[in-house]
Fold:
Amino acid sequence: MIPPVDVELLGLIAVIIAVLVVSTRFHSQSWRGRPNWQYRRVFSVGFGGLLFFVSGLLGLDLSRSHGLFQGATWVEGPVWWQVGLGSILLTLAIYWALRIPPPQRRQAH
Structure:
C-alpha cells in the first residue's frame, strides 16, 4: 500500500502538470513573443498562489520552510491560512491577466 504522503505528492505533481498544460494550450497564440513585465507579474503571482493553495489543501505547512521545501512539515488536514493566501494571490493574478491589453494585429498594406 502507498503511504498517504506519496499519494498527496502525486496529487500535487498532477495539479502542477495540469495547470502547465492548460496554460500552454489556451495562451500559446496570444502570449507568444511578448515578454513583458505584465506577463511576468501574472505568472509570478499565479505560481506563488498555486503553490500556497495546493500545498495548503494537501496539508504541507510552509510556515517554517526554508530553501526549497526544507523544514516544511505535513499536518493533519488543510492549512487554511495558506489556502486563503493562495486564493488571494490567484485572484490577483487573474485580475492582472484580464487587464493586459490584447495584442495589436498588424494590418496588411
Notes: The first strand starts at residue 60 and ends at 61. The helical segments are 4-27, 37-58, 80-98. The longest helix spans residues 4-27. Residues 29 and 68 are 32 Å apart (CA to CA).
